[in-house]
Amino acid sequence: MSLKTIGVLGIGEMGTAVAKLLHDNGVRVVTTLDGRSAKTKTNAATAGVEDLGSLGEVVKVSDLVLSMLSSKVAQQVAHLVGQTAKDLGVHSMYGEFNAIAPTTVQTIEKDIGDMMDVVDGGIVGGPNNLLAATFYLSGPRAYEVAALSDFGFNTRVLGDVVGQASGMKLCYAGMTKGLSTMALDLLLAAGSLGVDGPVLEQYQRSMSGVLEFINRFVPGNPKRAVRRSEEMPEVATMIDSLGFDGSIHRAAYERMKWLGHLELDTDGFPDAASVAHHIINQKKRK
């Protein structure tokens, strides 16, 4: 099946970036903006997305429907899309690209698999540099969705089992977000105790690669922590479902929510230590 028309559900940061790249490479991109904000409608127009006015119209004309919403509503939206496809008598592909646990996307496949062919997707990379991101795919029709590479995307098929791509995404997200959250906590402690200098020196001597990692990821976290925190319960669910204990990831979820509620913008800060100092100073002022 050729991908001439693609429906995108979720015109947020990632959805807008994906839609624009598709549109710029000649794909017709459609959505429904019923009840969405003026900002979302502006984003859609800028990205070249057509508002068809209803989910039914989107499902009817799309070769592939991409779900890029919040993990909290992934199952609800998938069920609605599948039911819509059934009512219309169409059978296209459904790309589940939310950051959800493998068991969650497998539940979605069981729910709507008779109405639509589910392809599991996991995006590693951000919307600001989409050309450098990798779109991991799995499922029986994953190779068909891998044709997104014709439109500028980096795609990699992991296998024909729905859940593999979501697992790949969460194993990466759990590391980047979980480790950077823990590192910031330790730097907050070091700064509050007045030993941040020696701590950073020791990090540099014995694990310079880890220090480089947290300096890369921590400054961008506070502004996006609430939204990013949604992935951590999904990581915990994945770990639990495999017979291990996901409690550390549930703890990271609480810490990320706390960080987000500080309502700080530390984009552009040079390193993790400067973010920690900023938070400590803010706390002192209160």
Automatic annotation (TrEMBL):
Which Pfam families does this chain map to?
DUF1932 (PF09130), NAD_binding_2 (PF03446)
Q: What is this protein called?
A: 6-phosphogluconate dehydrogenase NADP-binding domain-containing protein
Family matches, as Gene3D superfamilies: N-(1-d-carboxylethyl)-l-norvaline Dehydrogenase, domain 2 (1.10.1040.10), NAD(P)-binding Rossmann-like Domain (3.40.50.720)
Task: Please report the stretch or stretches of sequence annotated as the Phosphogluconate dehydrogenase NAD-binding putative C-terminal domain.
Answer: 190-258
Q: Where is the 6-phosphogluconate dehydrogenase NADP-binding domain?
A: 5-139
Which GO MF terms does the UniProt record name?
Answer: NADP binding
> What does UniProt give as the signal peptide span?
none
